[in-house]
Amino acid sequence: SGRVPLYVALPLDAVSDNTTLNHTKAIATGLKALKLLGVTGVSLPVWWGIVENEEAGKYNWSAYQSLAEMIRNAGLKLRVSICFHATSNISLPPWVIKIGESDPDIFFKDRAGKWYKNCLSLAADDLPVLAGRSPMQVYEQFLSEFKSSFSGFLGGTIT
Questions:
Q1: What top-level class of enzyme does the UniProt entry assign (predicted)?
Q2: What is the pTM of this model?
Q3: Among 79, 88, 106, 153, which is disulfide-ready with 158 (CB 3.0 to 4.6 Å)?
Q4: Tell me: the pLDDT tens digits for 27-57?
């Protein structure tokens, strides 16, 4: 057909930090409109700080699963970006921040010595600084849980 697939970003606050799906009616209406306009799908960040919020290894995908179901029902595709950093509105998981209070070296620090508590240091990637696991192990487990939790959407709705 020669058409370029078009994906529209969903609002960054579509899912809140207490794993609540926000603006449900507006999103549902918007998804129908996007489908009518010929949009291929939507893009959505999936935040580590939202999903693994309560404690290490405890994942709550419910709001993201509800949203994926809405997107599938609208006949659209979904592209996700997995976000292991924080923003002004979404923090790293509280249990990670607590670890960083006693071990600030887990956070990124620039050449001037300024700490950035919105992301972990690359220097800590392979060190067991997160409740006995390395950040890479934590990220790998997160991605594995994502794959398992969204297996019914992968390759179809989630592209």
A1: hydrolase
A2: 0.93
A3: 153
A4: 999 999 999 999 999 999 999 999 999 999 9
